[in-house]
Each structure stands twice: as structure tokens, then as C-alpha cells.
Design a protein that fits this description.
Lipolytic acyl hydrolase (LAH). By secondary structure, the chain is α+β, with helices and mostly antiparallel strands. It is built from 4 helices and 8 strands; from the N terminus they run E-E-H-H-E-E-H-E-H-E-E-E. Strands 1, 2, 3, 4, 5, 6, 7 and 8 form an 8-stranded mixed β-sheet that branches. Helix 4 links the parallel strand 5 and strand 6. The longest helix is centred in the C-terminal third of the chain and has 23 residues.
Amino acid sequence: MKDTCKPLLVPCFDLNTSAPFVFSRADASESSSFDFELWQVCRATTATPGLFKPFGLQSVDGKTSCCAVDGGLVMNNPTAAAVTHVLHNKRDFPSVNGVEDLLVLSLGNGSSTAGNLRRRRNGECSASSIVSIALDGVAETVDQMMGNAFCWNRTDYIRIQVRLQIAIHEKPRLFLFSSIDFFHCSTQTGRGVFCFGIRCN
């Protein structure tokens, strides 16, 4: 990862530590213990449970290991992680002193809960609806936090989120890699950080 042409953050969930794990070019540049092969990082963040087995990977020096599943499970909206990374990464972003120096465009991968919650006959939410509520709820919470951090200045921060419409009579479908949560942050110097997670809808 240390040789990527732009600063990069990629989230996953590590089953070994039961915690989120974020791969970054900044960490990879500082220590080979946090440098991973890029193809393995991409495979790790897309290891969606039920579709792919957890993906085990090791840093290039073999000192750090991770048993990864889909990063979208814990970081469905990675904007906050990316903004925090930029604010604390003076090597790649020396001119950034605060959010007033950032221009953020966050593109969501589609909300599935708006008007689409499936209920059982007794009126309770189905298990799939609860998962959707959790994922969409986290993404919306991050959007609220970022909006507050940027004082709701829509010239410096904007999130575009599509509302997925599913007819009530339709069965749920699985679209593999149908959407990408993509974040781009620009500074006045034109540098940017890219952060993404691929989620199945």
C-alpha cells in the first residue's frame, strides 16, 4: 500500500481482534508491519459474510496479521475516518489545519431502509430489516456528525445518498458489488484521500 499514488484508507473488520481495522498508506509508509499488498487489502474489505469466506492476510514483513470481513459492516460511511485521517496526517496534508481547509464529497451506496422495511405478519421487523437499519443508521449518524463538524456548510461538505426503492411484492435480490461507498477529500493544494468500501445490496 505504501506505493499508492494517493493517500488511501480501506476499512475491514478483523475477526482476530473483534475490532475494525483500517489499512492506510500513511501507516504503510511508516512501518512495513502495516504495509499490505493492495490486492489483498481489496479482497479483505470485500469479504462479505455469506458470499465469501473471511480473508486472512499478513503485512509484508509478516508481523501483523488480520482475518478480515467486509469493511462496510462496521464502516458503511467512512467519511469520518477519512476526515480524521487527513486532519492528523501532516506528512501528506501539511496545509490542513482544520475542517475549514477541506472540501468533502461523500457518495453513499444507497439506503435500503427508506420505506422498504420488511415486517413479519405479527408486525415485527425481520432480521434483514434490522441489519439494514443498523447499516443505514450508522451511515446517517456519520453524516450528521460531519454536517455538524462543517457547520452544515454545503459548499465544503456534501453527502449524496440514493434511496433504493424495492416494491413490496419483490423478493430481496443480491447485487454483487453493485455499489461502492466512495469518499473524496480535496484540499487547497489539490491533494486528496480516497476511502471506499464495497457493499452488497
